[in-house]
């Protein structure tokens, strides 16, 4: 072999390592991505107008906020039942049923005649929401190839992100026709998503339920004995606290009270967070499949934690937006790795509805408790403490992952 041939061969091997051939995603996963986009798009239609719609029933800001929180509370209460239901009837029926429940409750919201009707209808939507959320996670766990779990989780998160970005834009335009119209549009999007899943998703049940062989359903106690699952619960709680709680509830207040900026600054902060998230999701899933789950979790939690803590000490809009963007990058780094780690623990050949429900519950608990505690700290000690403690929770979760065994099996 000539020297030129050897060099060419070595170069080819290097490029093969740097640019590995990625297998195509299974068709069922693509169906799940389409459904995720439709769901997120519909949610984005309603989210900007829901508090304003509640105030049309002559209630104040606190009562309007209850309309938002009742959804999360019902998700939390019914999560265990949703997980158990998956074990009994399977993921796809629970997914479709949950979508249709939310569709019906959302359509009913459009015809609510008073505040209490709106509260009841919105609360019922939370029941369906936790059903399809846990079922969708269970489907992704079962359908994603083991070697591509990080990439699939990243693609799924990207589909939701794109829908969440497009939804408020379309919802703002629809609101011009009346505040009830976005609710009907959301209901239609959910019905369409349910139809896509019901007609296009493979009807093959999980191997264990189809053949009666293989491992039984994973129980919560069994999963809890796995260190990676315990660390996943901790990081899910921390991520719910910071990303889904404080970011949505406390960041807008900080922009107005501490920076003296208007609501547009809060909107910009959410937008740059989403942009940073999108940038990270473009590569984080692939890295989780090659480098491993633990390195991505530790780095993502540290980046998110430090940048979140820094937000509370910013006094300039540019630094505030920069810290928000970096926090979005950190959240995008940890998200796919965390989902993939849980999928590694459960595996593709068994159901894990209860395990996934508990995992989802920790995020919801964080999203509920985080803003409350951050608000108390902000009122009594200042926003520096509120964001500092939030960042500290994320850093503690990173510390938990440093001592956690890797769940990604070595490729042969």
Notes on the protein architecture:
The chain is mostly helical and 412 residues long. The longest helix is centred in the middle third of the chain and has 31 residues, at 227-257. The protein is built from 16 helices and no strands. The protein has two domains: 26-202, MFS general substrate transporter like domains (Growth Hormone, Chain: A); 217-412, Growth Hormone, Chain: A, CATH 1.20.1250.20. The model is unreliable at 10-19 and 206-214 (pLDDT under 50). Helix content is 81%, strand content 0%. The protein is globular and about 50 Å long. Helix 6 (115-143) packs across helix 15 (353-380).
Notable features of this structure?
412 residues; mainly alpha; Growth Hormone, Chain: A; 16 helices; 81% helix
């Amino acid at each position: 072999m000539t020297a030129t041939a050897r060099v060419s061969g070595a170069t080819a091997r290097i490029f093969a390592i740097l640019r590995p051939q990625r297998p195509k995603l299974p068709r069922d996963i693509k169906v799940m991505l389409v459904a995720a986009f439709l769901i997120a798009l519909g949610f984005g239609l309603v989210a900007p107008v829901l508090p304003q719609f509640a105030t049309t029933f002559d209630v104040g800001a606190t009562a309007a906020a209850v309309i938002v929180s009742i959804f999360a509370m019902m998700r939390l209460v019914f999560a265990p039942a949703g997980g158990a239901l998956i074990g009994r009837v399977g993921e796809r029926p629970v997914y479709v049923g949950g979508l249709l429940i939310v569709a019906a409750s959302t359509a009913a919201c459009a015809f609510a005649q008073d505040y209490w009707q709106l509260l009841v209808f919105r609360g019922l939507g939370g029941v369906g929401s936790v059903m399809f959320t846990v079922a969708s996670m269970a489907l992704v766990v079962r359908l994603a190839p083991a070697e591509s779990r990080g990439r699939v989780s990243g693609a799924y998160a990207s589909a939701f992100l794109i829908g969440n970005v497009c939804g408020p834009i379309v919802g703002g335009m629809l609101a011009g026709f009346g505040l009830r119209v976005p609710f009907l549009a959301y209901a239609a999007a959910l019905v369409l998503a349910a139809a896509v899943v019901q007609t296009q998703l493979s009807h093959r049940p999980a191997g264990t339920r189809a053949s009666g062989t293989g491992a039984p359903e994973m129980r919560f106690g069994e999963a809890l004995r796995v260190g990676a699952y315990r660390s996943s619960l901790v990081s899910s709680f921390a991520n719910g606290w910071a990303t889904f709680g404080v970011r949505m509830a406390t960041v807008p207040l900080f922009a107005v009270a501490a920076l003296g900026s208007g609501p547009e600054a809060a909107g910009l902060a959410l937008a740059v967070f989403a942009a940073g998230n999108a940038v990270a999701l473009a590569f984080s899933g692939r890295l989780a499949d090659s480098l491993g789950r633990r390195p991505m979790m530790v780095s993502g939690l540290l980046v998110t934690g430090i940048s979140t803590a820094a937000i509370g000490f910013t006094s300039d809009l540019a630094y505030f937006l920069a810290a928000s963007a970096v926090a979005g990058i950190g959240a995008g780094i940890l998200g796919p790795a965390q989902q993939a780690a849980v999928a590694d623990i459960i595996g593709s050949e068994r159901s894990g509805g209860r395990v996934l429900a508990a995992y989802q519950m920790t995020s919801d608990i964080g999203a509920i408790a985080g803003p409350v505690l951050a608000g108390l700290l902000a009122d009594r000690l200042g926003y520096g403490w509120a964001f500092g403690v939030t960042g500290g929770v994320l850093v503690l979760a990173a510390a938990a992952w440093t001592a956690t065994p890797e769940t990604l099996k070595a490729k042969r």
